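Box 3.1. Reading complex inputs
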Amino acid sequence: GAGVSQSPSNKVTEKGKDVELRCDPISGHTALYWYRQSLGQGLEFLIYFQGNSAPDKSGLPSDRFSAERTGGSVSTLTIQRTQQEDSAVYLCASSFTSGTAGELFFGEGSRLTVL
Amino acid sequence: AQSVTQLDSQVPVFEEAPVELRCNYSSSVSVYLFWYVQYPNQGLQLLLKYLSGSTLVKGINGFEAEFNKSQTSFHLRKPSVHISDTAEYFCAVSDTGGGNKLTFGTGTQLKVEL
């Protein structure tokens, strides 16, 4: 399809394990974002990639979280030594650069459950 | 830095009734404002946005919102709701300085009943 694709859609893991979440943005979109959606807390910004610029990591909650974007396209969000408070839906979005301000296209998310 | 407040976590309304979902923001710089909608088991999609110009903006599915700078508000309205409008609605803000990093509110669950 032409939309933002995320995998896995659901992931159950044990506390202390590492997880990787993948995002495939819309072709041609230069910006990619990761957000976390927790019950009752709205969407929390995690990290933002724009072209070849250094990513904005200001939203990452701890050093257990990291993300990379290879070749300006696919992104992987990695959570090391998962904790129960990491349980949430992780949303990826992509967009063009300025000119379409605010029009982010979201994937359906990856639901992470840490037991 | 910006912040967004959506005071109503849930809004129940009967079908064909009007609805208003409230959004207030805080920012020290000029902002763009947005409403996104999330239908059950789907990703978020843009409903409408205010960038500049007319303070009344119209979006998809008959929704509209009015930017009020003095009250730092961007309330979402629809004159007559339908069952299919049942969804979660998120207000968001970004600064006008470039980039599309959005700060979201906590969301309002709109439940339309017969």
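In summary: The longest strand of chain B covers residues 87-95.
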